[in-house]
Amino acid sequence: MNVKQLAAEKAVEYVVDGMKVGLGTGSTAYWAIRKLGERVQEGLKITAVATSVASEEQARELGIPLVGFGDIDGLDLTIDGADELNHDLELIKGGGGALLREKIVARGSKRMIVVADESKAVGTLGQFPLPVEIVPFAWEWTVADLAKLGCTVELRRSGDGLYKTDNGNYIADCRFGTIASASELAASLQNITGVVEHGLFIGIAALAIIGKQDGSIEIIEREHGE
Ligand SMILES: O=C(CO)[C@H](O)[C@H](O)COP(=O)(O)O
Protein backbone atom coordinates (compact mmCIF):
# COMPACT_ATOMS: atom_id res chain seq x y z
CA MET A 1 0.00 0.00 0.00
CA ASN A 2 1.40 3.38 -1.00
CA VAL A 3 0.25 5.44 1.96
CA LYS A 4 1.69 8.68 0.57
CA GLN A 5 -0.46 8.23 -2.53
CA LEU A 6 -3.47 7.41 -0.37
CA ALA A 7 -3.19 10.66 1.60
CA ALA A 8 -2.33 12.78 -1.42
CA GLU A 9 -5.23 11.55 -3.53
CA LYS A 10 -7.67 12.16 -0.67
CA ALA A 11 -6.45 15.78 -0.48
CA VAL A 12 -7.08 16.29 -4.18
CA GLU A 13 -10.78 15.62 -3.53
CA TYR A 14 -10.86 19.07 -1.88
CA VAL A 15 -9.99 20.75 -5.21
CA VAL A 16 -12.97 22.05 -7.20
CA ASP A 17 -13.43 23.98 -10.44
CA GLY A 18 -12.12 27.53 -10.45
CA MET A 19 -9.62 27.06 -7.61
CA LYS A 20 -6.15 28.55 -7.56
CA VAL A 21 -3.96 25.81 -6.15
CA GLY A 22 -0.47 25.72 -4.63
CA LEU A 23 1.55 22.64 -5.55
CA GLY A 24 3.86 21.31 -2.85
CA THR A 25 7.20 19.57 -3.17
CA GLY A 26 8.41 16.08 -2.30
CA SER A 27 7.46 12.46 -2.75
CA THR A 28 3.98 12.86 -1.19
CA ALA A 29 3.13 16.09 -3.02
CA TYR A 30 4.22 14.28 -6.19
CA TRP A 31 1.16 12.03 -5.91
CA ALA A 32 -1.13 14.98 -5.36
CA ILE A 33 0.21 16.71 -8.47
CA ARG A 34 -0.14 13.49 -10.45
CA LYS A 35 -3.79 13.09 -9.40
CA LEU A 36 -4.48 16.77 -10.12
CA GLY A 37 -3.01 16.26 -13.59
CA GLU A 38 -5.39 13.36 -14.16
CA ARG A 39 -8.35 15.46 -13.06
CA VAL A 40 -7.28 18.37 -15.28
CA GLN A 41 -7.13 15.98 -18.23
CA GLU A 42 -10.68 14.93 -17.32
CA GLY A 43 -11.83 18.57 -17.44
CA LEU A 44 -11.13 20.10 -14.00
CA LYS A 45 -10.57 23.85 -14.43
CA ILE A 46 -7.87 25.17 -12.10
CA THR A 47 -4.78 27.33 -12.17
CA ALA A 48 -1.70 26.59 -10.10
CA VAL A 49 1.65 27.80 -8.83
CA ALA A 50 4.48 25.46 -7.82
CA THR A 51 6.80 25.53 -4.80
CA SER A 52 9.85 24.19 -6.62
CA VAL A 53 11.37 23.80 -10.03
CA ALA A 54 10.75 20.02 -9.79
CA SER A 55 7.03 20.42 -9.04
CA GLU A 56 6.68 23.05 -11.74
CA GLU A 57 8.19 20.69 -14.30
CA GLN A 58 5.92 17.85 -13.20
CA ALA A 59 2.84 20.10 -13.42
CA ARG A 60 3.83 21.37 -16.86
CA GLU A 61 4.29 17.82 -18.17
CA LEU A 62 0.82 16.92 -16.90
CA GLY A 63 -0.82 19.95 -18.50
CA ILE A 64 -1.77 21.70 -15.24
CA PRO A 65 -2.16 25.41 -16.13
CA LEU A 66 0.50 27.42 -14.28
CA VAL A 67 0.27 31.15 -13.63
CA GLY A 68 2.78 33.75 -12.47
CA PHE A 69 2.62 35.29 -8.99
CA GLY A 70 1.91 38.64 -10.63
CA ASP A 71 -1.26 37.25 -12.19
CA ILE A 72 -3.01 36.31 -8.93
CA ASP A 73 -3.22 37.84 -5.47
CA GLY A 74 -3.55 34.60 -3.54
CA LEU A 75 -4.49 30.95 -3.62
CA ASP A 76 -7.51 28.97 -2.48
CA LEU A 77 -5.70 25.83 -1.43
CA THR A 78 -2.18 24.46 -1.13
CA ILE A 79 -1.44 20.74 -0.78
CA ASP A 80 2.02 19.90 0.53
CA GLY A 81 3.92 17.27 2.49
CA ALA A 82 5.77 17.54 5.79
CA ASP A 83 8.74 15.94 7.49
CA GLU A 84 7.06 15.96 10.91
CA LEU A 85 3.72 17.17 12.22
CA ASN A 86 2.23 17.29 15.70
CA HIS A 87 -1.37 17.33 16.89
CA ASP A 88 -1.53 21.15 16.85
CA LEU A 89 -0.56 20.99 13.16
CA GLU A 90 2.85 22.51 13.77
CA LEU A 91 5.14 21.20 11.05
CA ILE A 92 8.77 20.68 10.20
CA LYS A 93 9.24 21.12 6.47
CA GLY A 94 12.17 21.52 4.14
CA GLY A 95 13.54 18.00 3.89
CA GLY A 96 13.37 18.54 0.14
CA GLY A 97 14.95 21.98 0.44
CA ALA A 98 11.91 23.95 -0.76
CA LEU A 99 10.82 25.44 2.58
CA LEU A 100 11.06 29.12 1.62
CA ARG A 101 8.90 28.81 -1.48
CA GLU A 102 6.61 26.40 0.36
CA LYS A 103 6.06 28.89 3.17
CA ILE A 104 5.42 31.81 0.83
CA VAL A 105 2.87 29.75 -1.11
CA ALA A 106 1.19 28.25 1.98
CA ARG A 107 0.92 31.67 3.68
CA GLY A 108 -0.66 33.06 0.52
CA SER A 109 -3.34 30.35 0.57
CA LYS A 110 -6.72 30.45 2.25
CA ARG A 111 -6.13 26.85 3.29
CA MET A 112 -3.15 24.50 3.47
CA ILE A 113 -3.68 20.76 3.55
CA VAL A 114 -0.75 18.66 4.72
CA VAL A 115 -0.42 15.17 3.30
CA ALA A 116 1.75 12.59 4.99
CA ASP A 117 2.18 8.98 5.93
CA GLU A 118 1.75 8.02 9.58
CA SER A 119 5.52 7.96 10.27
CA LYS A 120 5.48 11.78 10.06
CA ALA A 121 2.96 12.25 12.88
CA VAL A 122 4.80 12.76 16.19
CA GLY A 123 4.01 13.82 19.75
CA THR A 124 6.86 16.33 19.91
CA LEU A 125 8.71 17.87 16.98
CA GLY A 126 12.48 17.70 16.69
CA GLN A 127 13.60 14.19 15.87
CA PHE A 128 13.83 15.25 12.22
CA PRO A 129 16.63 17.82 11.80
CA LEU A 130 15.03 21.23 11.27
CA PRO A 131 16.02 22.65 7.86
CA VAL A 132 17.00 26.32 7.96
CA GLU A 133 17.70 28.21 4.73
CA ILE A 134 20.67 30.56 5.17
CA VAL A 135 22.51 32.95 2.87
CA PRO A 136 25.91 31.69 1.65
CA PHE A 137 27.61 34.95 2.80
CA ALA A 138 29.36 34.33 6.16
CA TRP A 139 27.54 31.03 6.51
CA GLU A 140 30.12 29.97 9.11
CA TRP A 141 28.88 32.69 11.50
CA THR A 142 25.24 31.87 10.86
CA VAL A 143 25.90 28.19 11.57
CA ALA A 144 27.65 29.18 14.82
CA ASP A 145 24.62 31.31 15.83
CA LEU A 146 22.29 28.40 15.07
CA ALA A 147 24.37 26.03 17.21
CA LYS A 148 23.98 28.45 20.16
CA LEU A 149 20.25 27.59 20.12
CA GLY A 150 21.15 24.11 21.38
CA CYS A 151 21.28 22.01 18.23
CA THR A 152 23.95 20.26 16.23
CA VAL A 153 24.14 21.78 12.78
CA GLU A 154 25.09 20.13 9.52
CA LEU A 155 25.30 22.07 6.30
CA ARG A 156 23.44 20.02 3.69
CA ARG A 157 25.63 18.55 0.98
CA SER A 158 24.88 17.41 -2.53
CA GLY A 159 27.38 15.22 -4.37
CA ASP A 160 30.84 16.72 -3.87
CA GLY A 161 29.65 20.18 -2.90
CA LEU A 162 27.16 22.04 -0.77
CA TYR A 163 23.46 21.73 -1.53
CA LYS A 164 21.91 24.88 -2.98
CA THR A 165 18.20 25.67 -2.85
CA ASP A 166 16.22 26.84 -5.88
CA ASN A 167 16.95 30.33 -4.46
CA GLY A 168 20.73 29.84 -4.43
CA ASN A 169 20.99 29.55 -0.63
CA TYR A 170 22.35 26.86 1.71
CA ILE A 171 20.39 24.61 4.04
CA ALA A 172 21.58 24.11 7.62
CA ASP A 173 19.98 20.97 9.09
CA CYS A 174 19.61 21.60 12.83
CA ARG A 175 19.19 18.55 15.03
CA PHE A 176 17.39 19.52 18.25
CA GLY A 177 16.12 16.09 19.33
CA THR A 178 13.15 17.72 21.07
CA ILE A 179 11.58 21.08 20.31
CA ALA A 180 9.72 22.07 23.49
CA SER A 181 8.16 25.23 22.02
CA ALA A 182 8.06 25.60 18.25
CA SER A 183 6.93 29.23 18.48
CA GLU A 184 9.77 30.25 20.83
CA LEU A 185 12.31 28.53 18.60
CA ALA A 186 10.82 30.18 15.51
CA ALA A 187 11.23 33.60 17.14
CA SER A 188 14.89 32.86 17.99
CA LEU A 189 15.61 31.67 14.45
CA GLN A 190 14.05 34.79 12.94
CA ASN A 191 16.45 36.87 15.04
CA ILE A 192 19.54 35.47 13.30
CA THR A 193 20.43 37.80 10.44
CA GLY A 194 21.83 35.19 8.04
CA VAL A 195 18.67 33.09 8.28
CA VAL A 196 16.43 33.49 5.26
CA GLU A 197 13.65 31.21 6.53
CA HIS A 198 13.22 28.16 8.72
CA GLY A 199 11.19 25.00 8.28
CA LEU A 200 8.82 25.45 11.25
CA PHE A 201 5.29 26.04 9.95
CA ILE A 202 3.15 27.24 12.83
CA GLY A 203 -0.49 28.27 12.50
CA ILE A 204 -0.37 27.73 8.75
CA ALA A 205 -1.76 24.24 8.04
CA ALA A 206 -5.51 23.91 8.50
CA LEU A 207 -5.90 20.19 7.88
CA ALA A 208 -3.67 17.12 7.82
CA ILE A 209 -4.52 13.98 5.91
CA ILE A 210 -2.49 11.04 7.16
CA GLY A 211 -2.32 7.78 5.25
CA LYS A 212 -1.93 4.61 7.31
CA GLN A 213 -0.52 1.20 6.51
CA ASP A 214 -3.87 -0.49 7.18
CA GLY A 215 -5.38 1.55 4.36
CA SER A 216 -7.23 4.01 6.59
CA ILE A 217 -6.90 7.77 6.66
CA GLU A 218 -6.69 10.01 9.73
CA ILE A 219 -7.75 13.62 9.42
CA ILE A 220 -6.53 16.24 11.89
CA GLU A 221 -8.12 19.67 11.75
CA ARG A 222 -6.62 22.68 13.48
CA GLU A 223 -9.01 24.52 15.74
CA HIS A 224 -9.79 27.93 14.29
CA GLY A 225 -7.58 30.66 15.71
CA GLU A 226 -5.31 28.17 17.50
O1 LIG B 1 9.11 20.08 2.93
C1 LIG B 1 9.27 19.39 1.96
C2 LIG B 1 10.18 19.74 0.84
O2 LIG B 1 10.89 20.89 1.14
C3 LIG B 1 8.52 18.12 1.83
O3 LIG B 1 7.16 18.41 1.89
C4 LIG B 1 8.90 17.23 2.97
O4 LIG B 1 10.30 17.06 2.92
C5 LIG B 1 8.20 15.88 2.88
O5 LIG B 1 8.67 15.20 1.77
P1 LIG B 1 8.18 13.77 1.39
O6 LIG B 1 6.74 13.89 1.02
O7 LIG B 1 9.06 13.38 0.23
O8 LIG B 1 8.38 12.86 2.57
TrEMBL record:
<feature type="binding site">
    <location>
        <begin position="93"/>
        <end position="96"/>
    </location>
    <ligand>
        <name>substrate</name>
    </ligand>
</feature>
<dbReference type="InterPro" id="IPR004788">
    <property type="entry name" value="Ribose5P_isomerase_type_A"/>
</dbReference>
<dbReference type="InterPro" id="IPR037171">
    <property type="entry name" value="NagB/RpiA_transferase-like"/>
</dbReference>
<comment type="pathway">
    <text>Carbohydrate degradation; pentose phosphate pathway; D-ribose 5-phosphate from D-ribulose 5-phosphate (non-oxidative stage): step 1/1.</text>
</comment>
<comment type="similarity">
    <text>Belongs to the ribose 5-phosphate isomerase family.</text>
</comment>
<dbReference type="InterPro" id="IPR050262">
    <property type="entry name" value="Ribose-5P_isomerase"/>
</dbReference>
<dbReference type="Pfam" id="PF06026">
    <property type="entry name" value="Rib_5-P_isom_A"/>
</dbReference>
<dbReference type="InterPro" id="IPR020672">
    <property type="entry name" value="Ribose5P_isomerase_typA_subgr"/>
</dbReference>
<feature type="binding site">
    <location>
        <position position="120"/>
    </location>
    <ligand>
        <name>substrate</name>
    </ligand>
</feature>
<dbReference type="GO" id="GO:0004751">
    <property type="term" value="F:ribose-5-phosphate isomerase activity"/>
</dbReference>
<protein>
    <recommendedName>
        <fullName>Ribose-5-phosphate isomerase A</fullName>
        <ecNumber>5.3.1.6</ecNumber>
    </recommendedName>
</protein>
<comment type="function">
    <text>Catalyzes the reversible conversion of ribose-5-phosphate to ribulose 5-phosphate.</text>
</comment>
<keyword id="KW-0413">Isomerase</keyword>
<dbReference type="GO" id="GO:0009052">
    <property type="term" value="P:pentose-phosphate shunt, non-oxidative branch"/>
</dbReference>
<feature type="active site" description="Proton acceptor">
    <location>
        <position position="102"/>
    </location>
</feature>
<feature type="binding site">
    <location>
        <begin position="25"/>
        <end position="28"/>
    </location>
    <ligand>
        <name>substrate</name>
    </ligand>
</feature>
<comment type="subunit">
    <text>Homodimer.</text>
</comment>
<feature type="binding site">
    <location>
        <begin position="80"/>
        <end position="83"/>
    </location>
    <ligand>
        <name>substrate</name>
    </ligand>
</feature>
